[in-house]
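input
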Amino acid sequence: MPEPRVLLDIAGPVATVTLNRPEKLNGVDIAMLRELVSTAREVRADRSVRAVVLRGAGDAFCAGLDFGSVMRSPATIARSFVPNPLRGQNLFQHAVWTWRELPVPVVAVVHGYCYGAGLQLATAADFRFSTPDARWSVLEAKWGLVPDMSGTVSLRELVGGDVARRLTMTGEVVDGSTAHAYGLVSGVADDPGVPAEELIAQIVSRSPDAVAASKALLNRTRHASPRRAFAVERRLQLAMLAAKNTAIARAANAKKETPAFVDRTFGR
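output
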């Protein structure tokens, strides 16, 4: 039986998802895309999970699409390129964007290469921590292609238009420190797992429903008109006022105690 392309380990409220093709620098093939989708579905179904760490095994986060493997089956590529009419996403896009759609925050921990598909996956996460010497690139430009795994949406949300164009048109390789200066990266550390853990510790101390609703609020209103954004705010706030975890937070704060939250009830 082949080794899983994606590993999932759930310890308490934190799920660690590991790209698991270290011999290929975690190059993405069709099997990995499918496992990314199924793993995200498994995480979504476990309402005890309150944060996700996304990382790569071995010497790299992800060196991009494994062209050698993927191109062996043009028919599979063609089928995978057709979008699902309900989602409006094909397999390549859905395998990445599904992490943005999770009702829990996703934190990418990046080292080594973060190229092409790997960069698009990392930027779909809510936060990214990188080693200073990690290598980031929209590498599709090297092959005469454009980022087509949701990366254009992530880039336009994280960096200015000129930076997005520069990275996409040139495919230049930048280190983690430069990626941080550009806005691609949330923080830089020799061991990026440390700031990732510190942030997650802060997040899981809050109501899992409020965290999920906050992610939904920011995702849904990022490009909305003020009128639309205010309507989304109202709906989500009404849901939070009725949530059990909100009552737990209120009671604990009144007593100056640490709240003992129950599993997430908000978000599918």
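quick obs: The chain has a mean pLDDT of 96.
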